[in-house]
Design a protein that fits this description.
The protein has 498 residues and is an alpha+beta fold. Helix content is 48%, strand content 19%. The protein folds into 3 domains: 203 residues, PAS domain (Beta-Lactamase), CATH 3.30.450; 56 residues, no CATH class; 221 residues, PPM-type phosphatase domain (Phosphatase 2c, domain 1, 4-Layer Sandwich), CATH 3.60.40.10. A hairpin with a 5-residue loop joins strand 10 and strand 11.
């Protein structure tokens, strides 16, 4: 595309011609300046408001997620430590390990069925605040105000009917948002003054179109399109800027290709750690599915031969996603395989996994796992759960049963003991082990898929071949959420006794 270039003298002549034009308020530069400035103010204000809302959600949502994780950990601890004194000691230790930035406005309280407090994180907590925490949990409210101070709260109910409430002050978040809002308003005001001062002189028609092309290219890059290039046009400055943006896009494309290559190798390594998705083990048929949200994930499963010749089915779920979570799952898998050579005791293997994770992982990282030992000579199985989603057994007639006995999640406390439980697995019965990513999905109306719906789906599809059932379950969950990609890592491990 050829573009006419003007010399400095020609530009001066053009400006002199404009001086003979009608009144200044009728000039194109002024009108264009007015239109652009009004549009700029409207766009900046709209996007500033949208960006502020997004930043507010970005600051508050992690707090809510952290509170939910804490509440789940505390619920497991409550079930595992029924004695109130032991739970209070765990709660005190849990709070001491908390980050200093979150601790001052952090409150934890446990209410019994009568609404009385049986345990609390801080002895100096105010009764009125704890009452508001209880009211917020009962009303399913995520936020409340106490003493003109905003709080976020989350509550979970235990099997015994007690309610664990966790609340966090949002004052620090509000201060950050207020500072950002003030800074953004000041920046916008300065920008508007500058734009008003220079647009009537600087805005020429032959500059606008090249700028639009550049904006379109940057927008495309923001959406992940790194194959776009802009043909240089307009003034020498815009041509120089265009060349610089093209070089930047090319550099980003090179970096992205390198990143994808590295992540591809990491994905290949993690998938190489997985056993065959469909295989026969003695009197059992096994099928599995592994769907990480990123190239690699924090979920993993394994099929291991124990020292006595029996088969171990293991499934792990580390908090978080991506490379860090994948490294911890690799660690847990290595611990399982190392100890499987020497023992068939699931409790000893779980305790070794817990000690290994607690030794290297930070206090805010934990994992759940479920170990199942297949017993070919008996019509039963052995299992150990460390805070993992209970497995489901579907009998020959379609009746489902949860394996809901378990212990503390891995990585919370180094010295933790686990107990082996038994469950009946008759010929023709099917065992389903999975991570919570498969049943904690929601549809467009924010309705949760849930374990009840999952158990019903497993029963309804129990007449299919095992691999067909696995695919049908994944497909039905994807149809429910109306998209193929999951928000959380999904792992499904199925076994059928022949």
């Amino acid at each position: 595309m050829n573009t006419t270039r003007f010399s400095d003298e020609e530009i001066v002549n053009k400006l002199q011609e404009c001086a003979t034009a009608p009144r200044w308020w009728n000039t194109l530069a002024f009108r264009l300046g007015v239109v652009i400035n009004v549009a700029a103010i409207a766009v900046l204000g709209t996007f500033g408001l949208i960006d502020f809302r997004r930043e507010e959600a970005a600051h508050i949502q992690p707090e809510m997620n952290r509170l939910r994780e804490e509440a789940r950990v505390l619920r497991v601890a409550w079930e595992y430590l029924p004695d109130s004194g032991q739970f209070q000691a765990f709660l005190d230790q849990f709070c001491r390990q908390m980050h200093s930035a979150a601790s001052p406005g952090h409150h934890i309280a446990v209410f019994n069925e009568m609404g009385q407090i049986t345990a609390r994180a801080h002895g100096h907590a105010k009764p009125v605040l704890e009452a508001q925490m209880a009211a917020s949990v009962r009303a399913d409210g995520a936020r409340f105000v106490f003493d003109a101070e905003p709080f976020a709260s989350v509550g979970v109910e235990t099997r015994s009917g007690a309610t664990i409430a966790v609340a966090q002050s949002l004052s620090a978040v509000q201060q950050i948002l207020h500072a950002q809002r003030t800074s953004r308003l000041a920046s916008v005001a300065i920008l508007v003054v500058l734009v008003f001062g220079v647009t009537t002189i600087a805005l020429l028609v032959w500059v606008r179109d090249p700028l639009r092309k550049l904006v379109a290219a940057v927008s495309a890059v923001e959406k992940g399109r790194l194959d776009v290039r802009v043909r240089p046009s307009g003034s020498p400055e815009l041509r120089y800027l265009t060349c610089g943006i093209n070089e930047m896009i090319q550099a980003l494309e090179t970096v992205e290709r390198d990143r994808e290559s590295r992540m591809g190798r990491a994905r290949a390594i993690q998938r190489a750690l997985l056993p065959c998705k469909g295989r026969q083990v003695e009197d059992f048929e096994i099928a599995a599915a592994f769907l990480p949200t990123e190239s690699i994930g924090g979920d993993l499963y394994d099929i291991v031969t124990l020292s006595d010749g029996t088969t171990l089915l293991a499934i792990f779920d580390v908090s978080g996603h991506g490379v860090p979570a994948a490294l911890y799952t690799a660690l847990l898998r290595a611990v399982v395989r190392h100890h499987a050579v020497a023992t068939a005791d699931l409790a000893l293997i779980a305790e070794a996994m817990n000690a290994g994770l607690a030794e290297v992982a930070p206090s805010d990282t934990f994992a759940t796992c479920l170990l199942v030992r297949l017993l070919p000579t008996e019509e039963s199985i052995e299992y150990v759960s460390a805070g993992h989603s209970p497995a489901i057994i579907v009998g020959p007639r379609g009746r489902s049963e949860d394996l809901d006995r378990g212990g503390l999640v891995l990585g919370v406390r180094r010295q933790t003991r686990y107990e082996v439980s038994r469950a009946e697995l008759l010929p023709g019965s099917r065992l389903f082990m999975f991570t919570d990513g498969i049943h904690e999905v929601s549809d467009a109306q924010m309705r949760l898929f849930g374990r009840v719906r999952l158990a019903r789906l497993l029963s309804d599809t129990s007449s299919l071949l095992l691999e067909e059932q696995r695919d049908a379950v994944i497909r039905d969950v994807q149809v429910f959420q109306r998209r193929e990609r999951f928000d959380d890592d999904v792992t499904l491990l199925c076994a059928r006794r022949k």
